[in-house]
Write a structure and sequence with these properties.
By secondary structure, this protein is α/β, with parallel strands linked by helices. Helix content is 52%, strand content 11%.
């Protein structure tokens, strides 16, 4: 034990230390939210402050995270209290020693009137800054100690795991590293894997802006449609899109980045991600791998499962800002709130907040508390589901005046024109309030996020979508439950990750997490920090459901029902095992990925997989590239194709381009066929799957959201009118039920369900089924010496994923544009044989103002560096 560590233990053990520290923290927290302190005092005496700073100087000389966290707390809380210049300088010195240069920069800006460092201190600080700085473009940027250590490890390690709190600057480092490799190498191929389309768009945007001057780097968010002449390729893909790319392209990669790597534990999607990594690392043992996760452990187990022996982990648990957890209780007075600061020793009285608002109604308390305590800085308000986010946003908007801002008016108009004219979100944003959930259209979600970052949207009611990935820090976070909408408890690590959104690095030194009615929660997940534990999804399901997986491999595939999380995991694990048997690597795969499974259990899995492969009798390639689909369903569909070909009915099997005459009826039969043969589901006229099939064809054709939603609204209103008529004729329905049927259709609910249908069914299930259909049909044609017909097969799974079916639309989306923007540009771009190159050249030479596009679409085009007419933005 070092002297500094021994002295630190003695100091924190002193009977007065905790009392004085708690006093500093509660006074500073009360000051940050304008609460009346519990005992009426505003500050500590200088003598007590001096004692704390003496202790902090000792703490920073240790390598112990807990002591360094206390030192940072002393420094940042001192700054919040705006103490004397002497203590401001001492705080800046502490932050410099801690390597927290974003907080140092903030303090220098905000306290320039108080800070007067002496010459030697100033030289020392600048030297520390220089040692932690890297050059980014024309500027030098000072990194935190954690960032600098991680940065230094990136060029030297084959496999690197970087784990740190939300907004610690992990992705910035990796994107900069990736871009430098692209700039300096003559040939380069990399893929950045993002779990959600929201994060995918954000990362693509950052890489595109960073490499805006490099025309030799091909950056894409979709599997390549055209072969790019560039020798440098960066793909930014979800794991599902990467799966497509790997089936199309057998080339190796120099670098793979996995963002939000804790998603390797996420059921079927986690297995898809792991299998993609298996394929990539199997192609070239020299491929470098970077894993990013917020406060996660278990990386070594993951590295072992991928066969990566050389592994380096860079880990930090020290956030760069204060993150106060504040328990909010309704006071006996309905217009007051009791506030307590929560730390590992429990809640400490913080103060009282008095208001003209009432807080005694549980149904409106969350919104009332957020409006009262979230007036300073942006506020994220947790809602348990997409429907609840709409409700919370409505309550927030009702308590705020209209915002006088042109950008808000533009956003409202964009929502009405490009989503639906009756969508309630358009009214909310005019009050500086929005809701946010994962299945919204990409451009809408990005625009809301940008408005929040720019402080135009003040309150954002959000779901678990913002628990990961998207960089959207806020001054305040409000949570009133540890549950999901289904009633299931959230994983504690997820809540901690969301709470980590509080505090904006470089822009602030404090973030507040308000825990509303925390005393009434049935569990207290935010008492003590809990990080993610990465456990590969395949290993999890086999260990938990071994016998079910074996039976599934043998053909007893469980049926998938709504809200069933077990059956999809079992089916995916079974399909993965069969695919490995087809590849000839199932024994090695099982040995590597299931280290704690018994020898008998491993043998049963291997034997079942090998037997299944023999029984299925399908080409190995089909089983290897379509393992997410029921393999026994694949066999049924393949047999169906062979029968139809033998009957001379091959033409009716070939999927046409969606815009061709008669395409809708052909696709209706295709979707019926795949559901019947693969999922053993019949599709009746008017059934849910029939509606999905119709939606899928319109989606592929690029039909805009307002038209898609209007069709669903028309159907909902027709059905409601029918039920009302039937109820009146039957005379058996109560007056209350009749009154409910007379109420207008909930437009926001229909919009939300339309988004759900598109994302869950069309862009996920139907994409996977569609890929299987195309692959099996192509194989069946080749087997029957009809190879000439394979060229007629339209690759409709790609059209289902992207939502456009034209070369122009695909080219615009490969440039990084959203579907909304691509669809808006298609009608103006008349080139029939459009390529990515020709689309880029057309955008670069076209005056966007002449196209009369929404300013938000113009903003996306210019943000991606696709327009050289800068005046277009102002004129549009």
């Amino acid at each position: 034990m070092t002297f500094a560590l021994e002295l630190s233990n003695r100091l924190v053990g002193h009977e007065d230390f905790s009392t004085i520290l708690k006093r500093l923290e509660t006074c500073a927290a009360a000051t940050s939210i304008d609460a009346e302190p519990a005992d009426g005092r505003q500050k500590l005496e200088d003598e007590d402050m001096a004692k704390l700073h003496y202790c902090a100087r000792v703490f920073v000389q240790t390598d112990d995270t807990s002591f360094r966290r206390i030192a940072q707390s002393i420094a940042l809380n001192t700054l919040l209290l705006r103490g004397s210049g002497d203590f401001v300088d001492k705080s800046i010195a502490l932050l410099t020693d801690l390597g927290n240069f974003p907080a140092v920069d903030y303090a220098r800006r905000m306290f320039s009137d108080l800070s007067r460092p002496n010459l030697l201190d100033g030289i020392g600080r600048e030297l520390s800054r220089v040692m932690n700085s890297i050059k980014v473009g024309a500027d030098r940027m000072a990194l935190t100690d954690f960032q600098k250590e991680a940065w230094d490890s990136l060029p030297n390690e084959a496999t690197v795991a970087i784990s740190a709190p939300t907004a610690a600057g992990k992705s910035f480092l990796v994107i900069e590293h990736l871009c430098r490799l692209a700039e300096t190498r003559s040939r380069f191929r990399a893929v950045y894997i993002a779990p959600t389309r929201a994060l995918l768009a954000e990362v693509h945007d950052k890489i595109s802006r960073r490499l805006a001057e490099r025309g030799d780097v091909h950056i894409a968010t979709v599997p390549a449609i055209d072969a790019s002449p560039s020798s440098k390729h960066i793909y930014v893909l979800t794991q599902e899109r990467l799966q497509f790319l790997l089936a199309l392209d057998t080339g190796a990669f120099d670098l793979v980045v996995v963002d939000e790597a804790q998603n390797l534990s996420d059921g079927p999607r986690g297995m898809i991600l792991q299998e993609c990594l298996e394929q990539i690392t199997g192609r070239d043992s020299l491929t470098r791998l970077i894993l990013l996760a917020p406060g996660a452990g278990g990386f070594q187990r993951l590295a072992d499962s991928l066969g990566k022996k050389s592994f380096h982990e860079q880990r930090s648990l020290l956030p760069t800002v204060l993150q106060n957890r504040i328990v909010v209780r309704k006071a006996s007075d309905p217009n007051s709130l009791d506030l307590h600061l929560l730390d590992k020793s429990g809640p400490a009285p913080l103060g009282v907040r008095r208001s003209d608002r009432r807080f005694d109604d549980p149904a409106t308390r969350l919104a009332a508390v957020a409006l009262e305590l979230g007036s300073s800085g942006g506020s994220l308000v947790y809602a348990t589901g997409a429907d609840k986010s709409e409700t919370v946003a409505s309550k927030l908007a009702s308590g705020r005046p209209l915002v006088d801002d042109n950008s808000v008016d533009e956003l409202a108009l964009f929502i009405r024109d490009h989503v639906h004219k009756e969508y309630g979100l358009a009214d909310h944003v005019r009050h500086g309030v929005a809701f946010h959930y994962g299945k919204m259209p990409t451009l809408l979600r990005e625009t809301i996020e940008a408005a929040f970052r720019n402080d135009v949207i003040k309150f954002l009611a959000c779901t678990t979508t913002l628990f990961q990935g998207v960089n959207l820090p806020a001054r305040n976070v409000f949570i009133d439950t540890p549950k999901r909408g289904s009633g299931a408890l959230l994983d504690a690590a997820q809540l901690w990750n969301f709470a980590g959104r509080a505090g904006r690095m470089k822009e602030d030194i404090v973030g507040n997490v308000f825990l509303v009615d925390y005393d009434d929660w049935e569990v207290k997940p935010l008492d003590e920090f809990v990080g993610f534990r990465i456990s590969p999804a395949f290993e999890q399901v086999v260990n938990e459901r071994h016998d079910q997986v074996v039976r599934a491999v043998q053909g007893d595939m469980p049926r998938i029902r709504r809200r069933d999380e077990i059956a999809p995991r079992v089916r995916a694990a079974a399909g993965l095992l069969i695919s490995k048997a087809a590849l000839g690597t199932v024994s090695e795969f099982v040995a590597r990925t299931l280290p704690e499974t018994t020898a008998h259990q491993k043998s049963s899995l291997i034997d079942a997989a090998l037997a299944a492969t023999d029984e299925l009798g399908l080409p190995d390639e089909l089983l290897m590239t379509n393992w997410t689909v029921n393999p026994y369903g694949l066999k049924r569909l393949y047999q169906y194709f062979l029968e139809r070909i033998e009957m001379g009915r091959v033409d009716e099997l070939i999927p046409p381009k969606p815009h061709e005459d008669g395409a809708r009826e052909i696709y209706k039969e295709i979707f019926k066929t795949v559901q019947r043969e693969i999922n053993e589901t019949s599709i009746a006229a008017g059934s849910y799957h029939a509606v999905v099939g119709g939606m899928a064809v319109r989606w592929m054709k690029g039909v805009p959201y307002p038209s898609l939603i209007s069709l669903q609204l028309k159907r909902a209103r027709r059905e409601k009118a029918k039920r009302l008529s039937e109820s009146l004729n039957s005379g058996t329905v109560s007056a209350r039920q009749q009154a409910r049927l007379r109420e207008p259709v909930d437009v926001d609910a229909i919009v939300r369900r339309t988004f759900d249908m598109i994302e869950d069914e069309v862009r996920f299930q139907y994409v996977q089924l569609g890929k299987a259909y195309v692959d099996l049909l192509r194989a069946a044609l080749i087997e029957n010496n009809l190879t000439r017909l394979t060229g007629k097969i339209f690759n409709f799974p790609v059209a289902l994923e992207l939502g456009v079916a034209t070369k122009a639309g695909w080219s615009f989306m490969e440039l990084g544009l959203s579907r909304i923007s691509a669809a808006a540009l298609e009608s103006h771009f008349k080139e029939t044989n459009a390529t990515v190159k020709s689309a880029r050249e057309w955008l670069a030479t076209t005056r966007l103002a002449d196209l009369r596009l929404s300013p938000i679409i113009v903003s996306e085009i210019t943000r991606l560096g696709l327009s050289s007419h800068s005046e277009s933005v102002a004129e549009a």
